[in-house]
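Hydroxymethylglutaryl-CoA synthase: structure, please.
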Amino acid sequence: MPIGIDQLNFFTPSLYVDMIDLAKARNTDPNKYIIGIGQEKMGINPITQDAVSMGANAALPIVSEADKSKIDMVIFATESGTDYSKSGAVSIHRLLNINPFARAIEMKQACYSATAGIMMAKDYIASHPDRKVLVVGSDLARYGLNTAGEVTQGAGAVAMLISADPRIMTVSDETLPFTKDIFDFWRPNYSDTAMVDGKFSNEAYIQFFETVLHEYQRRYDFSLEELEALCFHLPYSKMGKKAMANELEKVSEETKNRILAHYEASILYTKNIGNIYTGSLYLGLASLLDNSQEISAGNKIGMFSYGSGAVGEFFVGELVQGFKKHLATKEHQQLLDERERLTIPEYEELFMEALPENGTSLKLSNRFDSAPIQLVEIRDHQRHYAFR
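Here you go.
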């Protein structure tokens, strides 16, 4: 029974910083950001958008009235959680008015956990083929003002409905995870910004990709020649290209050129939003499907998921007949086009805004925020979300 992605949508807040503006403010050559890192714009969240509200906004357009009664599980993947105990999935479940007899859980493993959510969803649907699972990956990537990682920040969420007989992409049963305890990137509970060993992080990413790919090839008699495209978790748009460089030297020139051409289509949204952690791989998939003119039904797409700390996984998806009719290409482009460009002082002011940590009540609003679902109030140590 084919199981996979039935619907796919992303959300990013209505604000961005232009990388040329940021480079000038940081006394840096803009080409270091635009060409060296491969980033053009950085998605910025107002205080009224956190991981939960962004996840709900990503899911809102793809959860129909009929779906609400069929969704048996809401899986919220994030490393930007808002509560040590209560899952953001519970809030998303309420906001979308999903069937009350459903599981709602939050998963964490850096940027990897949305993939774990998909695999869990597949297992559930295999024994409940008439049901669906909502998987949401949502995060705020923050490293601090005027830091080495500032240019790779971002904000956004991706939502996917997983079902039998999916209308976009089936996910193969042949998948391979790999885990190793390392410190390439982490964020202690007492810090609101991440810590990263930049050089080691890049090396670990490449090592994980090559390790899982080689073992996948050994176990499943697989070749990159079978793929139309490769999608990667993208902490910045150049990372996937670095990871596959050695492997592309082992394939035909035709395969190499094809995969590199599709890669350029897959990074367009990341270039304009930045790193969104758990949703990053699937933002790349959305970008590929929306922007590649050559991709077609029956094509196989290799998917490399990576979450620092670290867990990686490689699997293959296959596009189904008629998938293009179920893409939100026009809506995605409109979302990006309608964002407002912040000045650097405006960005720095928004970045420093913080929610109270002592139980103080606060009603929230932001003139920039036009999203349907927002964080509207802090009251009695509780976050309250509502439709605006």
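Notes: The first strand starts at residue 3 and ends at 11.
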